Amino acid sequence: VFGKNFIARDMGFRNTAGPEKHQAVALLTAGDQAVYYRCQIEAFQDSLYAHSNRQFYRECNIYGTVDFIFGNSAVVLQNCNIFPRVPMQGQQNTITAQGKTDPNMNTGISIQNCSIAPFGDLSSVQTYLGRPWKDYSTTVFMQSTLGSFINPDGWLPWVGNSAPDTIFYAEFQNVGPGASTKNRVKWKGLKTITHKQASMFTVKSFLSGDKWIPASGAPFTSSM
């Protein structure tokens, strides 16, 4: 999707390639002010490519395995169900891989009031909230419910055993058995944030979405 002001409602986007085909995108969006409402996005690796510009996903079901919400847009996923699923043998699941390459970009992945639950039996699979695709990778999980299958480390390095100090990762007011931050990785870029900082990743502050989402007819919460 490359056009501005694209709206999808009650639609499904599926890539049937399967996990053995590695990257297999179900939906790529690069147009500004895109809204997806009550949609289903289904693949394995790299399902949802939130490529660039501003995007909003509301009450969507998103399924995948490796880096399955990725890209360098300014995107808010709100009231969505996020379903990590069984990957190829030997693979680990990573929900996000945000691609910010420049600290001056207003981009990032904001996951607000979503449910993170397993699709299938993930008892033998390690599942993480994300890994930093680029040096300024920016991702916030807030006010969401995290299942017990999330690895206590929370986050996975892209390479080696650490992450660039320049990333911005945060978890704020999440609940559920996977939400404890006690045993999270000790990275400089994994922040403890205030309510004010978290509010910078809401629809109004991050996307100016209060100005363009109403025209789509999709419901939204503009702040915390």
TrEMBL record:
The name this protein goes by in its record: Pectinesterase
A biological process from GO: cell wall modification
Keywords in alphabetical order: Aspartyl esterase, Cell wall, Cell wall biogenesis/degradation, Hydrolase, Secreted
Subcellular location: Secreted, Cell wall
Catalytic activity from the UniProt record: [(1->4)-alpha-D-galacturonosyl methyl ester](n) + n H2O = [(1->4)-alpha-D-galacturonosyl](n) + n methanol + n H(+)
Keyword Cell wall biogenesis/degradation: yes
Major location category of this protein: secreted
Domain Pectinesterase catalytic: 2-210
EC number in record: 3.1.1.11
Source lineage: Eukaryota, Viridiplantae, Streptophyta, Embryophyta, Tracheophyta
Entry GO MF terms: pectinesterase activity
Active site: 67
Organism superkingdom: Eukaryota
Pathway: Glycan metabolism; pectin degradation; 2-dehydro-3-deoxy-D-gluconate from pectin: step 1/5
Keyword ATP-binding assigned: no
PROSITE patterns the record matches: PECTINESTERASE_2
InterPro entries in the record: Pectin_lyas_fold, Pectin_lyase_fold/virulence, Pectinesterase_Asp_AS, Pectinesterase_cat
